[in-house]
Amino acid sequence: MKSLLLVPDGVGIRNFLCGRFIDLLTQDGEVVVWHGTPEPELPRCRNSAVQWLPLATFREGVPERILRRAKVYGQLYGRREPASEAMLRWLRPAGRPVTRLIGRTAQLAGWVFSSPRGLAALERFHAEATERSGYMRDFEKVLAGQQPDVVFCTHQRASRAVPAMLAARRLGIPTATFIYSWDNLPKGRMAVHADHFLVWSEWMKEEMLHYYPEVSPDRVHIVGTPQFEHYFNPSLVRPREVFLRSLGLDPGRPVVCFSGSDLSTSPYDPAYLSDVAEALRRFPPQDRPQILFRPCPADTSGRFRGTLDEYPEIVLSEPLWFSHGEGDWTQIIPSMEDVSLLVNVVRHCDLVVNLGSTMAMDFAILEKPGIYLAYNQKNAAADQVWNVDDIYRLPHFRSVHELDPVYWARSPQDLRPLMARALAEPWEKSRARRAWLTRQAMHPLDGASERCRQALRTIAAVPSQVSTMFS
Prior knowledge:
Layout lengths: L2 E5 L2 H7 L4 H6 L4 E5 L6 H4 L5 E4 L7 H18 L2 H9 L6 H16 L3 H16 L4 H11 L3 E4 L8 H9 L4 E4 L17 E4 L2 H10 L8 E3 L17 H7 L8 E5 L9 H13 L8 E5 L10 H6 L4 E2 L5 E2 L8 E2 L2 H13 L2 E4 L4 H7 L4 E4 L14 H6 L4 H6 L3 E3 L2 H13 L5 H11 L7 H13 L11
Parallel strand pairs: 1-2, 1-4, 2-3, 4-5, 5-6, 6-7, 8-9, 8-13, 9-10, 13-14, 14-15
Antiparallel strand pairs: 11-12
């Protein structure tokens, strides 16, 4: 089997090039990685057993951009779910006049075409606009020359993957894409359509079939997610004393990790970090936990400088990702060193605090408790777009509300007693955490790469079908 991995961004690199998957896939035959990685970063993730090809140039035009965004609006308008109203507020057109005009046009198109038939038409219009863009010939030339048995896109959100997947469709090559995050389907984030979809769990498969009824069940493959496999690799683990002392932390005292969110998900994260630091100051000095802050890799805003200056006890652990494009989240590239860093942060911290992040799952894998921040900041009162209650109304949090695997901080005053309780009784929510992980990701968690490999074997043997989605 000859496999072509389409890796348009850093998330795909972390999940599929920094772990076991690429090594497993090479056992089945030739592997080509068609990548959007800047040349200076290639040595960080290059595997000598595969062929590396730079992704052909693609500059998304205005029609394609409008139609891609209209698909998101159309999904949200068509669902008529309570959380959709919040997501539509977050997507409110902003920025320069031209950017706002593009956004409003996409919003109107999404509203007009929000029926199932209309959404299918938007998908067809988006494909046709991309095919007319003038870039398709370059993508088709690469695929015709390589003649892979399957094209696997590691991330369904990146616009630069769209022409590559359409070119594969034109040539009759079976295609698959991975749904990389637990919130992508409820938020309508599907730039790339494919013959087959690899998802985390039965729960996510049900979401896929609900939101995209044109996709038949046999085209959705439950594989788990490779992002959790690193926690089962003992070679990545450093001794607690060595790791914590390298960060200036005392290995004899507990460590609370505050994991940051991106700017759009949690615009008031600096204030939440201040609240956690302030709550820790209220512990008696002899019992006071330490605090480590790991920002979101996609957050390059510098918005935490003031908080870090005000609370010098906060130890900053910067993700070892590298930005190669101002404001372009697809060009933030992870390193193998960061995989090890994250594994050790989770292993050697005793508690995680954040606003609805999957980092609570990472900690749950290693039987560590988590606290979700569930109150609004005072300066958020006038914010007509963002509200913390809207975050937790999103459908992917339903399992959190049902199973209660985390503690909920409903006010800044809750933080100190909750942190004390979680640190003193880390096993209190152990059963709920295990149930949450079982629902969210297929087990065993360390078998995701092998299941992805098996799914691609199956898909390679099936003729391409995606053209039926545009008819």
